[in-house]
Amino acid sequence: MEKARIFLTGVGGQGTLTATNLLAQTALEQGIPVTSGEIHGMAQRGGVVVSTVLLGGLLSPKIGLGEADILIGFEPLETYRALEFLAPGGIVVSSTEAVPPVSVSLGKAEYPDITTIEHAIRNAASRAIMLPARTLGKKAGAVQSGNIALLAAMLAADVLPFGVDALKATIERNLNPKIAGVNLEAADLGAEAALASNA
């Protein structure tokens, strides 16, 4: 898609904003106009973090209800909560592995059954890619790199004018070499998992 509204959501400590910045930087390096914003971010680990990347000259960083072409959820409950932002025919890429938010940890809310969440996601999306992001991150060498696995899974779906190789080039150029290798491995694992899920 030439223009795309991408809504990213997760909880603190998952690298949601790192993923947002890398996605925006990758698009810029491909010559695509980018508008990006952090709608709401809680500083503490476990707080909800929401950000946006809009590609193709869309000027406002805000994504309204029913406007997101792509929803990337780094935590399944947060993906579920954000489904109201998904446009008809939109695509969802989500982790299947829970990181219970503060409200659940404090006993103020119950975590829904993961099967219920997956069912709702698949019903809402024209295409849903569900991956164990934390497990893929651990396999690459750091659980936090699960965010890159999800980004790569989305790019492997050929929904944007650039793909996984462009993301990997951005990682190599912009991340500290000490962590770049882990994130490059996570990108490969995420892309492979996405392609396998679509087989």
Automatic annotation (TrEMBL):
Pfam family of the protein (one): POR
Classification lineage: Bacteria, Pseudomonadati, Thermodesulfobacteriota, Desulfovibrionia, Desulfovibrionales
InterPro entries (alphabetical): IorB_Oxidoreductase (IPR052198), Pyrv/ketoisovalerate_OxRed_cat (IPR019752), Pyrv_flavodox_OxRed_cen (IPR002869)
Listed GO MF terms: oxidoreductase activity, acting on the aldehyde or oxo group of donors
Keyword tags: Oxidoreductase, Pyruvate
Keyword check for Disulfide bond: no
Protein's UniProt name: Indolepyruvate ferredoxin oxidoreductase
Oxidoreductase keyword on record: yes
All residue ranges annotated as the Pyruvate/ketoisovalerate oxidoreductase catalytic domain in the record: 12-192
